[in-house]
UniProtKB/TrEMBL annotation:
It comes from the Bacteria. It comes from Pelovirga terrestris. Its main location: membrane. One of its GO terms (cellular component) is plasma membrane. This is YitT family protein. The chain crosses the membrane at residues 12-30, 61-79, 84-105, 111-129, 149-170, 176-195. Pfam families: DUF2179 (PF10035), YitT_membrane (PF02588).
């Protein structure tokens, strides 16, 4: 990552833009689909919605705002001031958008509504988490537990939502709770995809007797670095050199052409990576 790109990624403008667009998409999903269908979203907004459905107290936006206050104090203590302010911006925008926007997406099918809700929430939440902040709520708890005790963020979400939906089964219609669980599952899948699509790369291994020649052509033609790894074939016990290189999807076919025009007997292995950080790739995010 160049210094100019790194400076832009850490700029206030870029982070505020990500948070604003992501918060707006999430609010449209909540106000336009979740509330009209009485879905229980996962996380802290799910708790807010459950309280609203059962007690008819205030509204989910205000309840969400009140529940976030103690969590942001913890975020300030255990994470960073910058993380707190960006997360507070996301939380405030969701609460304000929720009060101002009068919007409903007319979807008759409960299943289609759950799927649409999951995609919109996952994409919106992913945009916010691409910034240096979070959506507030459960995100704050998950990040603290991950940094302090190395508990996976996914495990925190799973445990919290398991308790939330168990309580929902007691109080709400079973079909409604199941539809809400589908929405939460789709949200998590879309969220993971949104977070990884910017950093995802292809990891290629090339096993060849001409690995050094292939590496030279790759570095000259594609202008990317490669790594040569010593290896031994298990059958013949002969020494080989394995070339490892990280590329993007656009470079994949060009790499394949370079490999097989250099050595038609080469073994070409490609894997998907979830995230690639450091060196000339994306910079590690520091809150």
């Amino acid at each position: 990552m160049t210094k100019e790109k790194s400076k832009f990624v850490y700029s206030i403008f870029w982070n505020c833009a990500l948070i604003t667009v992501g918060s707006l998409i999430q609010t449209l999903a909540l106000k336009g689909i979740a509330i009209p269908h009485n879905f229980v979203p996962g996380g802290l907004f799910g708790v807010s919605s459950l309280i609203y459905y059962l007690a008819d107290l205030l509204n989910p936006g205000l309840i969400y705002l009140l529940l976030n206050i103690p969590l942001f104090i913890l975020g300030y203590i255990f994470i960073s001031r910058r993380f707190l302010w960006y997360s507070a911006l996301a939380m405030a925008q969701i609460s304000i958008f929720y009060q101002l926007i009068q919007f409903e997406i007319h979807i008759e099918s409960q299943l289609y509504a759950a799927l649409t809700l999951g995609v919109m929430l996952g994409f919106g939440a992913g945009m916010v988490l691409r910034s240096l902040g979070s959506n507030g709520g459960l995100d704050v708890i998950a990040i603290i537990l991950y940094q302090k005790y190395n508990i996976g963020i996914g495990k925190t979400y799973f445990g919290f939502n398991l308790i939330l939906f168990s309580l929902s089964f007691i109080s709400l219609d079973n079909d409604l709770v199941i539809a809400s669980m589908i929405a939460v599952f789709v949200t998590s899948v879309t969220l993971d995809y949104t977070l990884s699509m910017f950093n995802q790369r292809k990891l290629a291994f090339i096993i060849s007797e001409k690995s050094e020649a292939i590496a030279d052509r790759v570095m000259t033609t594609l202008k990317i670095g490669t790594t040569l790894l010593p290896a031994i074939g298990a059958y013949r016990k002969e020494g080989r050199t394995v070339m490892m290189v990280v590329i993007n999807n656009i470079q994949l076919k060009r790499l394949e052409e370079i490999v097989f025009t250099t050595d038609e007997h080469a073994l070409f292995i490609v894997e998907n990576t979830f995230s690639v950080l450091g060196s000339t790739f994306s910079k590690r995010k520091i809150y």
